[in-house]
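*** Residues and shapes ***
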Amino acid sequence: MIRVGLRDARAHFSRFIMSIIAIALGVSFVVGSFCFREMLNNQVDQMMGSNADHDVYVRGSQEQKSDDDSDSSSISLSTTTNTYNDIDTSLVDTIKGVDGVESAAITTSTSGVLTLVAKDGNAVATMGSPTISVGLSEGTWRSAQLTDGRYPENRNEIALHSFAAEQSDLKVGDTTTLVYPSGPETVEVVGVFTTDSSQAGAIIIGLAPKVEEELYQQNSGTNGQVKYIGVYGSANHGEPLSEEQQQELADRINKVLPADAKATAITGDELRDENSKSTKEMLGFIQPLILIFAVIALFVGSFIIANTFSMIVRESMRGYALLRSVGASSAQVFSTVIIQALLLGAVGSGAGIGLGWGMVKLISWGMAEMGVPLSGSVSPRVTDMIVGLIVGVVVTLIGATLPARRAALAPPIQAMNETVNPEPSVVPRAIIGVVLMAIGSLSWLLCWRIAVADGDPTPWEAVNSLGERLGTGWTLALGAAFVVIGMIVTAPALVKPTSAVLGWLPSLVFPVSGRLAARNLVRQKRRTANTAAALFVGVAIVSCLGVVASSVKASVSGIVDNGLKSDLIVMSNSGQIPDNAIDKIEQVEGVKSVSCNRMLLGITFDGESVLSTFAEQPSLFSDVFEPVTEAGDPDNALRSGQLVVGEAIAEEHGWKVGDEITVAGKKISIDEEATAKAQADYQAQIQAQIQALQTEAQQLTLKGDTAGAQKKASEAQQVADDAQHVDPSTLVKMEETETHETMTVGAIISNSFYRNVVFMNDEQAGKLANKQTMYTVTAYVTAKPNADTTAMRKNMIEEVKSFYVLSVMDREEYKSTIGSIVDQVLMILYALLALSIVIAVFGIVNTLALSVSERTREIGLLRAIGTSKAKIRGMLAIEASLISILGTLLGLAVGVAAGAVIQKAFQADGLENLAIPWSQLGLFLLVSILVGVVASLPPAHRALKAPVLDAITTE
């Protein structure tokens, strides 16, 4: 029986081609997801080993939960992980005195704050990768090697990573512009360096350590404190320490750390493992996302596999009947089909493994071309290949089981005579499908009620309890699963009525071809429904995403049109607008007011932090944004120094209008006493050095060594000259003081964009924090009455041109910008889902091929009585188009319904308006007709290739 199965597989290999393609595409997603995840993990490990390469790290000893880890030792990837309290920078001196310490330095990096201007005058940016600054000098970063020039020594000098130098076309000696948070400054490139690993497209800029420390502290709102102090050990003469050596050095450092320092030393390996783990977890969403498409592709492919084996079983039925007649058992006949399935699954899986590997290599190449080079390995592991093989074979076996069962259980006499049993009634399936869809619809209804209800979503306590446990996410997902499965189960019962409706127009225009095509669909309702279901799944997901995307853009447009009052919006590509830019914007003719969204860091309310706290001008609600008020008067509250709180924040903390809240922050100021002492100590140190050198010069003069005396005198003069040019800021000592203000909740607003935000005015914010620690995220510009906004925008663009990263948009451009972001995200999803639709096209080809095979005599008779080849082609084209339209219409119906439910579920979070993209859905319908016509060509060619007499007499 094995030989029979293998012989049949060879005989029907051409039938397997499309199934092999379907399996290969599905398996490629599975293997590709594993390869891509491993490539990212390998990249992370490489970068952690290179970028966090100190032997020991000293960090805080008190664990804190935080989403802000921008200063992680991994300078290229920020992570969401457990963080620890800051430690004092003065610990560096203590650590340097420990036996075995070669060097100790503050390790900070700042991401997304600076912008480098390329040689051509444009800002340097790469796809999705940040611009990162690091403090760089000799010995501060072991994995960095200078290839040209030297390290920077002051604010006007920078060193560039080789990739940044390549992207900017800058070299040592060039001058360029570096945009700081305070504004653009001219800098000179004094060095170029490389690192031991690829930096995944990050633009890395080396600053003088003191400059980077100031930038970091300004960005983080801290003073004299950092997250980490990095330590290199001396045991291996500059080479990395072993794990045991790291632990020994960490133990020695821990012994000398002051008890009140709240600091602890850990090994570099420990920190690298922690950061690698958290970063990999953060990137972990990518693999499940790809696997979702793998499941879709394999699910759709299973229909094609089932139809392929139905076709093979039908063509081989007489052979199976003969086997049964000579004594073969049902199990043996069943095994012949399963052997073919195993072979098909193995071949398709093998092709899929290679395709998945190639897909990841192509992605890696594409990302490198777009400026994100990755050096992680893309080769699949043995376990990846085994998983891909098992998945492909199992899906193939599932698809082949029913046809194999049919071959095994068909009575031999009936199979010999090619008679078939009438198709069972589809009514039971319809009842089951309707019940499943009803359950799914009720789940969606509960999801909607949970989202919009103020209190219990339903009158039934049991349902309310279930809804509370599930929430909107699970009810939405369960509803989608039940509706999709229910529609697939019900589809055979829909074939006859829909074929009558959809076939009316073709029957009217093409009386013969149209009627025959419509009747042919009803012959095998299950087969027709299964083929349409393959297309239904892809179209349902695509149309659902289309509705969500249109709703997002419509909601943004609605908010801008109905709530936004300002005429122009200024945004920064780096996420921050320099204060100097705001000054220039305010000076443009025609400007009435400029309202800045300034994000406040480190602010707590009754000891608890809030995700987003903003300092605003009093003109926010009068000139910029129309608030949706739940309680109080937002405009008056902001002007009078009260808090304006988003509805979600108020509910979370139980706040109401009139409540008094203790708001705490931190302010950094110059410590006059410490600064004076530092200056006096420095002067004393310089005087001592000069005095010592002069004494040596006098002694050499007395000994008659005139040359030596002159050399010492020159050294003393050089020390004095250097002291004259020292940067005064290095002697300024800062102090950090905690600030507390009791503030009243003056209003609660429910605007979707601001439900999780707390507003206070600039005056109150200035009492809590320094202005330089407030990030201006967006600036809203309101024009004076009758001002020419077009001319004002043109002048404003010219004024901020020197900042390189600022965009000045009118209201329509603002809406378009947000809409384009949505479209860019969806384009990737559309491209992946298009593969499932391609697989569905193969399914239609397979179904028509099977139908043509079953109707060989019928088609021969039609040709014998004078039906032209064009009419035969037209009949098959109409038949394929009707299948495509059926699947598309079902997909559109379910997809639009799912999109509408998603919009209702997230209405309170900003998805306020439901928008159905009718033109896009209409395009899907037209494409489905084209898909049907194209899919009909191979079966039509096969039907017309056979001579008429051979077709009539075929067995």
